[in-house]
Design brief:
The chain is α+β, with helices and mostly antiparallel strands and about 325 residues long. The protein has 10 helices and 8 strands. Helix 1 (about 5-15) runs antiparallel to helix 2. The model has no long low-confidence stretch (mean pLDDT about 95).
Amino acid sequence: MDLLTQGLLGGVLALSVAKKKESRRASAIGFAAALLADADILISASDDPLMNVEFHRHFSHALVFIPVGALIAALLLWPLLRKRLGFKRIYWYALLGYATSGLLDACTSYGTHLLWPFSDARIAWSIIAIIDPVFSLALLISLILGFKYCKPIPARVGLGLAGAYLLLGVWQHQNALQSAMELVEQRGHNAHRIIVKPTLANLVLWRSVYQSNDFFYVDAIRISPGPQRIYPGKSARKFNLQRDRPELGRESTISRDIARFSKLANDYVITDPGRANVLTDVRYSMLPIGITPMWGLDLNVASASQHAKFKVYRDQPDNARDLFLAMLLGHDLSN
């Protein structure tokens, strides 16, 4: 989830159980502690571009790390608050705030190492977009009201609304998944894997990606409220190292980077149609029917003994915004 919403949820949760005289400080502690987990974005190595991507949402978001992360947050905040609040109270509010980070991120589609070190699986429930203004606004209003009046009731109401919105996301996810499975059946495909994920800032328009044989198929699915529609998208062949880049070998540095990238992408990897040397994660694109990448692994290096480059891309069709809005509103794209 975006940083602001992470902080808002942590602040609201801490405020919802705070004593009246501690409410404002509790919300500030919860807000700050909820942001600390994303300090993992600072983990990087200049000679290994994938390290930063691998460690984002890793151990710092794990359930077992919550007490440790809360302790770090409390120690950082204690010099600022020690004259107004005891360390135990600071730690308690930091614990509540920090506990929200991994769980909220797991509600998105990117994947979070919640069960580390017992499991290396990236958990992604895909029930809310990384940025969702409805969810964020409910938390923001409740935090402002609770902070202003020093009362936990607005925070509790905000938590209730946020919880209800996530439950709506669960419901919409199931509806989108059912529609995607029906689409697979209509096409006569045999889907080995299938995922659905909400598109930016809404729970109405969803991106569907499934694998049938050696190909990925991407579609957009619009579900209630309003008309339900399927917008057929692109398809692309799954990347295979031996078939597509046999010259790289299996044990080279760049081949190991490809394996690492494939693991991060849960093996949803294709070659970018516009860049022959770039591998991309087909689960993500700005347009829900497209395969134009948001990021990828650039293999264009001088030697297979060098690390591949991880790059972020911003090139999208000129009419991407209009197409997205048309699908979100349920319009016919042929018009």
